[in-house]
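Structure tokens please, single chain.
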Amino acid sequence: MKSVELIDVKKTYFIENPKTGEVRAHLALNGVSVAFSEGEIHSLLGENGAGKSTLVHILSAQEAPSSGKIKIDGKVCTFYKPKDAIKAGVAIILQSLPLCLEASVLENLMIENDCFNLFFHKEKMIQKVTKRLNEWGIPKIDFNKKISSLSKEEQFFFELASRTLKNPRVLILDESTAFVSPSLRESFFSHLKKYAQEEKIVVIVITHDIDEAIKISDKVTVIRKNEAEKTLNIAQLKKTKTSFELTKDIEDLMLKKGEDEILSANVENITTEKKSSALVKNELSVNLVSKNEEFKPFSMEIKKGEIAGLIFVNACYLKLLENLLSGMDRFSLANITGGIKLMGDTDIFIPFEDITPHSLLKHKISFIPSDRYYRGSNPLLSISDVLSVYFIKDFFINTKERDRYVSSILNEEGIDSKGSDLCNSLSGGQLQRIILRRALKMEPNIIILSEPFHGLDIKSMKKLAGNLLTLAKKDKTILILTKEESNEVYSTLFNTTHLFSN
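Here you go.
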């Protein structure tokens, strides 16, 4: 039987402050051992920052371990670069989907495979990818389109089809399954389980969704505070335990009940004064009119102190409205008119073509995008650069004040990092938390969030939900864009919901 073992894997990052030269050690993994078997879906669960992604990045040679061993089929493997892991049959699809966005689908296929061979066998490769997509129940993708024109879901399935063309022995999905829409999730995981069994490969899934992990997994390993807490044989336990009991067992392992569990959280540094509501424009109306028959007219209103959910049947529409409301993509304006109206003592209408990140801040609107890696931040920027982008308003920068401001955000979120560290040293959940905290520091009246719970563990989800409820009680108006219709957290948050189906 094929197997993959990670034995006593440790990872320490040494982070140097470019100004002082001070080197700080950060322990990311502390002697983790876990075994994976062929034909099984093995999920890794844990809080954001627990070390799940670091572990699979070491297995796929995205990172080098400080110590420990990797064994595939009993043989010790040493990987110096990602190509070594690919050659050994390890394929990984990252949560950031690092595709070349401005290249075409076909060009991305050439990049991910042998360009020379593809030049002569282009049609054959396209047929193979299309066939693989059909097997997974995914509609055909136009290979001449730019990757950036595809939805995140389409990008994910293209990446999956492309990576599995080489018949890997190990397939790792690093939280990337979150891009799969609710309508396709059940059939996708059914195909994934069948694929693992028929191809006799190891499938490793990193997820924050405990219920889903129980449903799809043969085994679950809980990673907590950089160590492997326990591996549960879900297939066996299902014979004697209910799903509810299994969920409670895993929550206990992840959170260690009684040890600083956060069910709700205070929102610090947000003004608690209730201003004269007649002058504060914090009721919101969104109106979209299209000259293109593909998009039907749409409008909604959100009252002060409400949390409204805008649920999308099609991920492409979510991307469209996110672009329009954030002002980050002017190409979305083609054949579309409309805008947002701020309602108070005197209404203010802002057409979509006038919306920019600057105009939103001017009108006390904070927008938190779904893409935290390249829209909310950038992996090559320092944490200080990302957090102080709104704080710095003058040409001359008071570095002491900026550093205090950055440290306050990191301390409030309990993140053991320094402002000089790069953003790519943070987990996805940590990054999302500081982006939200950065937005709240601007004391907005209206907060728009796109897929805010994407990639968060249960503890972080509860904390964020508590934050949003606290903000709503302070008369903030909150709009959440999502395609997760079945997310139970939303049912406790939303005062109103609107379905955007077109």
